[in-house]
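Hi! If you just cloned this repository, the fastest way to understand the data is to look at a raw example. We've pasted two of them here, unedited. The first protein comes first, obviously.
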Amino acid sequence: MNAITAQPLTATAFAPFGEVLEVAAPPTKIINQGLCGRWHDLATLDFGPGGRAGISLFQAQPRTLPLQLEMLERHPEGSQAFIPMGADPFLVIVAPDAGGVPGAPLAFVTNGAQGVNYRRGTWHGVLCPLAAPGLFAVVDRIGATPNLQEHWLTPPLSVVAG
C-alpha cells in the first residue's frame, strides 16, 4: 500500500484547495467596546445557483494514524467549511482534480485551533477527528440538486504521521 505523510496544516500549503480558518494574525477589527477581536471574512463561501448557506453540526468518531484512505469525495455545487467545536487536531486530506478524478492526495494535521473551507469541487477525505468528541460546525450548500461525488481508491493509500 502506498503511503502519504500528513504534514502540519498551513495556509500556504492549503491555498490551492481553499482557506485555513484560524487566528494567525492580529484581528482585523476590534468591536464590542474594545473587548472583542474580529477576524473578518476568512473564507470564500460558494453555494452555486439554486443553493443557500446552511449550518449543520457533525459528530464523527475519532480516527488514528496510520489511516487507510479508501475514498475521496467532492461537492460540485458548493464550498464546505469545517469548524471544530473543540481544541483537538483533525486530519485534512485533499487532492487536486485530474480530469474528473482525484490526483495525488495531500494530508495535513491541524493544530487544534484551525478549521478549513474546501472550495467548490475540491476532492477531500471524510471528516477525521483525531480525538473525541469530534464535534464540528459545518457551513455548506443546502439545495435540491445532487452535490456529492465519491471516488474509491484502488488500491487504498495509507496516511501516516509526519
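Ok, and the second one:
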Amino acid sequence: MKVIYEKTFEKAGIDEIAIEVLKCSDVKIFCFKGDLGMGKTALVSAISKGLGCQDLVHSPTFSIVNEYIYPKGKIFHFDLYRLKTIEEVMDIGFEEYIYSDQYCFIEWPEIILNQLPKSQFVTCQLSYVSLNERKISLWAN
C-alpha cells in the first residue's frame, strides 16, 4: 500500500481536508477507518459537500446505506459496523453499488475489504491527535 496523503488538521478545517482528499485520487470508492467519534461521518459529509451535494449527510448506522444526489450522479454512504458476515453485506446489493461507477463511501469497511476491486479504492484512516485535532492518512490499495 502506498501513502498518497497525510496531514494533521483541526476539526474546523474539515472542508479543506475534504477537497484535498478528492484531489488525491480519481477513484470513487473510499473506505473510512477510525475509532468511534473520530469524525468519519463528518468527513464523508464534507467530501459530499465538496462534490456539490446539498443533501443532509448523516450516519447510515441503522439503514446501512444512504443515497445522496450530487450534480454528476449519486453518492452511496455505507456504515457496515453492525454487519457480521459477508453474506449480510451481499444481501443489501453491495456489488451493484460498488460497480455502479458512483461514489461509494464505506465506514467500517473491514468485513468487505477482500471483496473490493483492487486498485480501485482508497483507504482513509482517521486517528486522534487531540480534542480538536485529527490525523488523516490516505493510501492506495
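That's it. A detail worth noticing about the second one: The mean pLDDT is 94.
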